[in-house]
Each structure stands twice: as C-alpha cells, then as structure tokens.
Amino acid sequence: MDVQANRLTTIENLTAQNDTLEELYLSHNGITSESASMATGLALALPKLNVLDLSRNGITTTAPFAHLHGLEELWLSGNKIATFEDIEPLSALDSQKLETVYLEYNPVASEFEYRKKVAEFIPSLKQIDATMIGGLAAHGMATVAHGGGAAQTAEEEMRRLQGAVIARAKEQAEKT
Asked: Which pTM was predicted?
C-alpha cells in the first residue's frame, strides 16, 4: 500500500489488511510516534508486513514498531529520532528477520559510532542506511579455513594475505 505524501497525520483503519498487508509506504506525511500507534493502525499484529517506510515524518522513537516481527526493512530516514534509547525498542526484533534499517538524517545518525551501536541493538542487521555491515560473515559466508583452523571472515583473510605479502617482500628485500 502506497500513501506517500498525502498529508496523513495518523495511521488507522488497517484492520481489513491485518493478515495480508506486506508493504506499507507512508513517507512524507505528518505522522508522529503517537499517531503511528493507533489501535487500528500499526498497533495491529500485521504478521505479513515486511517493508515499512515512514521516512520524512515526525517519528521520535521506534517503540511503535517493536512488535512487528515480520519486518525485513524499516525506513525511518529524516525523522526526529535523537538518541540510541529511541532505537533500542527494535532490539526486541534482534532474532527475527529485520535486515535493513534506514535512520539517516535523524539527529542520532550524527552520534559517534552510530552504525556500530545500532548493529549492537539489532544483531540481525545486514544493512544500515545504504551501508552493508558486518562483512561476509554477517551474511553467513565465512571464507575457507586455512591449515585446519577455524573459518575466517573475508576481512580476516585479507589481513592474513596482507601479512604474507609483507613478509615475502621483506624476505626479498633482505636477499638483495
């Protein structure tokens, strides 16, 4: 359902779509955290809802979305989310499907180690804003183990290879 840029101030009357709604696009409206919590709106279970876009509204907290366990993508760019405590309610979804969250252009996005802290709250994330996070291991793809050791992430493998190249260059320099 796409009702972007319609000057909406509340989300209501979704009862008929409760069991079928998969994507809901509500960006560029006048929706606040309180009006996103209406009993016949996003407070419903909405078990099939996997994409929710509330970018460019007046949202101040993620609490109204912490019960939406089917969410895979949550777009909240350009709202008024100011602190990490305002994001923490999404940690209830950490063992669920949520893989992508957009929080850019919120006051919290300018905080030190913003992406790192968001990833700590929501370990299932693979993408924060337009940035993929966690390397290949976060996506279930560890590299092949070397010498019978444990599998490594791509980053660890690159560091190992870089060390080997530096060691080889030193050996060659000593020979000449």
From this structure: 0.76
